[in-house]
């Protein structure tokens, strides 16, 4: 497949993200034309369109874009860390820890901000647990980290099943929606976008080192890369991104898996281009999925994770088949 050079690819993805933003702000139970959306964004006032765009749709759109960008960027970093194109942010059990933390708060009847705090705390606890056990007393290795993450994720899954089995009927629906991935009431928006910008800013200066690291530790060490510290950076950034995403949008799958894989087929494996391209594409994908989730069964709203799963499975199989060819 022909590769697209860096600047046209990034410009095209930026234009796509802006177009999806315009679509998300225009569509809904009350349709608003693009001109009215622009006036609502730049003008002050208390009219209905201003309230719908600025107070309802814009925070949700920002949360969806930021969460998708976080998941896709985390997936791209983990695929370099594990040197496996099929790795994604959930393979290390980070989302499982977030789910247990959030569901525990929901079960206790805690306030919404405590649910978010529980999700973030669970994600960070899972990160420290997985990396600490994988490190052990011997040398760190991608295989050990992957296997440890799979085992820890299975343990979190058992705890999630336990919480769901004892949850009252009144709380069960909200828990299930959060597990599937729900953006109907995102608790944060700008902070998640800030986490995405911070992680991208921290990762890009190491893009050349990541290119070498993707070829193996021996090759990277021969080229002067600090192979002892770089994995810690990759893992810390991917954990931060995943925790921020699941705290905001719940457990949404497939974005971190298919987006970096698809972008890599188009722009190549240069991390200087792949990382920002993945962030833009992941944000646009989840924002589009959330917009469709609001429209398909209107006035009811589907979880965005349902749309990403329905799209992600066939897209991933197609990409896998195309790569084999």
Structure overview:
The protein is globular, with a radius of gyration of 20 Å. The protein is built from 14 helices and no strands. The protein has about 325 residues and is an all-alpha fold.
Give a brief description.
This protein has 14 helices and no strands. By secondary structure, it is mainly alpha-helical.
Tell me what portion of residues adopts beta-strand conformation: under 5%
Average pLDDT reading: 83
What is the number of helices?
A: 14
Largest sheet: none
**Name of the CATH architecture:** Orthogonal Bundle
**Any low-confidence stretches, pLDDT <50, length ≥5?**
none
Looking at CATH, the homologous superfamily is ABC transporter involved in vitamin B12 uptake, BtuC
Q: Helix/strand-derived class? A: mainly alpha
Give the N-terminus to C-terminus distance in angstroms.
11 Å
- The succession of helices and strands, N to C, reads HHHHHHHHHHHHHH
Q: Give the number of domains.
A: 1
CATH class: Mainly Alpha
The residue fraction in helices comes out at over 70%
Shape: globular
- At the fold tier of CATH, the topology name is ABC transporter involved in vitamin B12 uptake, BtuC
- The tally of beta strands, per DSSP, is 0
Query: What does the radius of gyration come to?
Result: 20 Å
